[in-house]
Structures are given as C-alpha cells and as structure tokens.
Amino acid sequence: MTGTRRSGGRPTLEQVAARAGVGRGTVSRVINGSPRVSERTREAVERAVAELGYVPNRAARALAANRTDAIALVIPETETRLFAEPYFSDIIRGISTELADTEMQLLLTLIRTPKERHRLAQFLGAHRVDGVLLVSVHADDPLPDLLEEIEMPAVLSGRRAAGESVPYVDSDNVGGASAAVEHLIGRGRRSVATITGPLDMYVAQCRLDGYRQALAVAGHEPDEGLVEPADFTEEGGRRAMARLLERRPELDAVFCASDVMAAGARQVLREQGRRVPEDVALVGFDDSAVARHMDPGLTSVRQPTEEMGRMMARVLLAEIGERDPDRPQVVLTTELIRRASS
Q1: H or E element: which one contains 307?
Q2: 122 and 92 within one domain
Q3: Segment Disordered: which positions (predicted)?
C-alpha cells in the first residue's frame, strides 16, 4: 500500500511524502528547517514522519545533496574588536539560537590579514560549507563578489552600498540616526556634532545621512566642522571627541554612531570638565549593555541586533534550501531609548 512502511524496512522519504500528500522536495524542506513551507504542510509532514517512524539519514542526505551541513560565520575583524563590542556577541547569539534546532555546524572565522583572506577564499571555493554569513562588511571587501561568483549562498549583516546584490539583513540606520538627532534638537540643543563610523562602511554613511537629514528638517545650517569620522571603537570615540572639542568648543550635543564610541567620548567630556547632559548631551547607537551601564545612562538607538542574527540565519537556510532569484533584503526597525545622558 502506498504511503505505508515497508515490512521490515526503513521508511523512505518518498513514503513520508506519499503519506503527507506532498512532494519529496517539500518533505526535504521541512526536515531541513526551511521557512518556505506553510504551517499546515509542515504539520502534515511532521505527522507522517511520526506515524512512519522516519529517521533522516544525515550522512546520506548530505552526500546526495552535495551538502556539508556547515555554515561559515565570517567576521573581517580582530579578536579585540570581536570581544570588545557587544554588537558582535549579540549577532552571534541570534545566529546560534536560530541554528540550535538544525543539524548545521557554525564555523567562526576571523579575517585579519591578506593571507587569511586568501586561505578563506580557497576554503570557500572548494565548497567546504553550505553557506556564509558575513558580518561587518566594508565597501571594498571582495568576499561578497567571490561568493556570488562561486554561487555560494550568502547573507550579509548590513550592505556595502544602496544597490547591494547579495541577500542581506540590516536595520533602519538612517531613520534611527535621524530620530536621535531630532531628539537632541527637540531638547533645545543648538550645536549638534556627530562621531561617525568608518565611512567606507555603508552603515556609517547611512547614520551620517540620518544626522544630516534631521538637521536639515530643523533648519540648521550644515557645519562639516561638527562631523568627525572614527572607527566604531572606544579609542576612536575618544580621539574624535577630543578633535571636536578643539574645533568646536561651543558644541552642546553629540550623536555617536555606536555606544562604544559614545563611551570613549564620555571619558573625554569628563576629563575636560564637561557635564553630561548639562553641558553636552550624548546619544549613541545600538542600545547595548554599554548604554545601560554608563553613568549617566546613555540614550541610544536600539537596533534589534540579536533578531538580525536570527533573521540572517533564517534567510541563509532558505537560500541553501532553494535559492531565491529575488535576493532577500530585510530591513528591521529601530527605536530611540531615552536615558539620562540627553
């Protein structure tokens, strides 16, 4: 009888498909955790699996599909930045949580030198993993294009440019930065500076655009002397804040493009006798643990970093299961969390 278990034999994928009334590929997607299956279909397949006692043969399935059951998480940064910035740990936590109920192994790779980049390119070119999650991408990074060339499923955290061709998950950086600066202006601040991230990163460009848009809407004349690029590190925030105070000592507010840079800026303000928020209001971006533990508490733009990690993994699993010709592009909302620093 079709759809029933063979006497004395191990149930097959085809028998599960017949019992559930779906195709073999649909059963495979359910078993592999693909989100591209309706809840009703998923329940039917899971019921058939339970009734037949089907157990996936992981090794055979991976071999037949030319799969490795491994995903590479690539972060082109040093160990110092990886462990110093809460952004990375939150992203990794989200990715790990999403993959916990799958059979995928997560391989963390840091790229610090050209030699390491070349070695990674060879590793990926040999298709030693099923897909790649790439975090902290710079505009000139050749890795996303290499992944496209070798047809390796990949998802970026953020984008290299407005017209990104690789699937990505991002947050509303322009809107978040604009809300931060609108808040500062609304509190009566007249000379609002910004400490940006590295401007070869699209995320930093977007946060700078949001800053400029908010000033324009409020009728403030643009002043490039109030803009100081940095590098998303605490020391970078320190250096940038010192330069801003030297150049524009009258400034009364600073929007920092990350909480970590805001922590560095706060140190310099304290050293120079500037009170926060009485003399200088301060706002960050990320709403990380850094913001909650600062004194005073840091007003910050909350981006759902852990959810970004989860979504990256979800999109990549779907891409591994069946490449989407429309290239998924996900932008998550941000929210301004007000604290005592502003």
Answers
A1: helix 305-321
A2: yes
A3: 1-21
Which residue type sits at 309? G
Q: Dihedral through CA 110, CA 116, CA 121, CA 126, nearest 10?
A: -90
Domain that holds residue 101: 70-171+305-332
Provide the pLDDT for residue 23.
85
Kindly report which listed range (99-113, 161-175, 231-245, 262-276) carries the lowest average pLDDT score. Answer: 99-113
- What lies within 8 Å, CB to CB, of 246 at 6+ separation is none
d(CA 255, CA 90): 22
Q: Residues 278, 282, 288, CA angle at the centre, nearest 5°?
A: 135
pLDDT digits (tens, 9 = 90+) for 153-192: 999 999 999 888 899 999 999 999 999 999 999 999 999 9
Q: Are 311 and 332 within 8 A, CB to CB?
A: yes
**One domain, residues 185 and 131:** no
- pTM exceeding the 0.70 threshold for the entire prediction: yes
Asked if the structure places residue 159 within a domain, the reply is yes
Whether residue 292 sits in one domain with residue 180: yes
Helix, strand, coil distribution of the chain in percent, nearest 5: 45, 15, 40
Q: How far apart are CA 304 and CA 171, in angstroms?
A: 8
What pLDDT does 288 receive?
A: 92
Report yes or no on 341 lying in a domain.
Answer: no
Task: Say how far apart CA 158 and CA 284 lie, in whole Å.
Answer: 18
Do 88 and 235 reside in the same domain of the chain?
A: no
The stretches of 199-277 forming alpha helices (DSSP H) are 202-217, 234-247, 259-271
Band of pLDDT at residue 336, cut at 50, 70 and 90: very high
